[in-house]
Design goal:
This is Amino acid ABC transporter substrate-binding protein, PAAT family. A 5-stranded mixed β-sheet has the order 11-10-12-9-13. Strands 1-5-2-6 form a 4-stranded parallel β-sheet. The chain folds into 2 domains: about 230 residues, D-Maltodextrin-Binding Protein, domain 2 (3-Layer(aba) Sandwich); about 100 residues, D-Maltodextrin-Binding Protein, domain 2, CATH 3.40.190. Strand 3 and strand 4 form a beta hairpin. It has about 350 residues and is an alpha/beta fold. The protein is built from 13 helices and 15 strands. About 50% of the residues are buried. The longest helix is centred in the C-terminal third of the chain and has 19 residues.
Length: about 350
């Protein structure tokens, strides 16, 4: 899988939305099928979400969402190429048609969903919230003790507003230092240029795992915002939006039904459960509505995994990030992950 580093100039959304042709909605699936792969925008290197391994293969839950889309469309999860994008580049790359889907730890907000020519399909890859990472030697146990702190923040993110709101609401002062990439922010914390690194908590755990001495740093207990992270597509192409949405829902439904990468083929052949039969294409033609083959869910789960498998492989307790499922557990297990049925 080829990894592309975006060199797109940052232009205004208004200029981008004026682009004709491919950037206009309605033809994404046709274009993807014609070129033979999904072009997926991911982060510029965030462990657990999207980061290249020693061979250059992009690993992470965001990357796996794109692989699942490729599995549904082509029956082959390898038919995806990745563009690594920083926070400033990501929306421009999607608006212009440089990428087909943005799957890059991106928060769903009203202004992004309604005012930028973009659309969030509604499948939330990861429920998150902004927090703070500090060196233990700073001696603080709560965000309320950060009055006067110098804080590293990644530019072009919702974190900037969230931190400003939190400090103003709590009558605290701080000095922000912004960076274009998450790695630059983390290195500045490690060097002592700033007292605190702030971002979504999942990103803080990921960045901590990359520091020279991760155990010297702690994520403070406060979560100061709601950050539902999920894939993004261009507005107006309902066909493509539906595919991305139901790929995510299929992964959740598979986990809830106990369908895994190891048993999915057998379940498709032998299940007596009507819901499972519909999900796996053994009953009905529900893939036809999405313009995919009837075994689209089988291919997703077989090649990529159900949601729980993807979570545990990239973020779970047996990874360097050691993240609990928490809110991202299924609704049946005390979390809020819930998917409508395939029927």
């Amino acid at each position: 899988m080829k990894v592309l580093k975006s060199t797109l100039a940052i232009v205004t959304a208004a200029a981008v939305l004026g682009v004709s042709g491919f950037a206009q909605a309605g033809a994404t699936l046709d274009a993807v099928q014609k070129k033979g792969f999904v072009q997926c925008g991911v982060s510029d290197g965030l462990p657990g979400f999207s980061v290249p391994d020693a061979t250059g293969k992009i690993l992470g839950i965001d990357a796996d969402v794109c692989r699942a889309v490729a599995a549904a469309i082509f029956g082959d999860a390898t038919k995806v190429k990745f563009s690594q994008l920083n926070a400033k580049e990501r929306f421009t790359a999607l608006q212009s048609g440089e990428i087909d889907i943005l799957s890059r730890n991106t928060t769903m907000t009203s202004s992004r969903d309604a005012g930028m020519g973009l659309k969030f399909p509604g499948f939330i890859t990861y429920y998150d919230g902004v927090g703070f990472l500090v060196n233990n030697k700073l001696g603080v146990k709560s965000a309320k003790e950060l009055d006067g702190a110098t804080i590293c923040i990644q530019a072009g993110t919702t974190t900037e507003l969230n931190v400003s709101d939190y400090f103003r609401a709590n009558n605290l002062k701080y000095t922000p230092i912004t960076f274009d990439t998450s790695d630059e922010s983390a290195k500045s914390l490690e060097s002592g240029r700033c007292d605190v690194l702030t971002s979504d908590k999942s990103q803080l755990y990921a960045q901590r795992s990359k520091l020279a001495s991760p155990k010297d740093y702690v994520v403070l207990p406060e979560t100061i915002s709601k950050e539902p992270l999920g894939p993004v597509v261009r507005n107006g192409d309902d066909e493509w939006l539906a595919i991305v949405r139901w790929v995510g829902y299929a992964m959740l439904n598979a986990e809830e039904a106990g369908i895994t990468s190891k048993n999915v083929e057998e379940q498709a052949k032998s299940t007596k459960n009507p819901d499972v039969a519909r999900l796996l294409g053994a009953d009905g033609e529900y893939g036809k509505d999405l313009k995919v083959k009837k075994d689209w869910v089988v291919q997703i789960v077989k090649q990529v995994g159900n949601y729980g498998e993807v979570f545990e492989r990239n973020l779970g307790k047996n990874t360097p990030l050691e993240i609990d499922r928490g809110l991202n557990a299924l609704w049946t297990n005390g979390g809020i992950q819930y998917a409508p049925p395939v029927r």
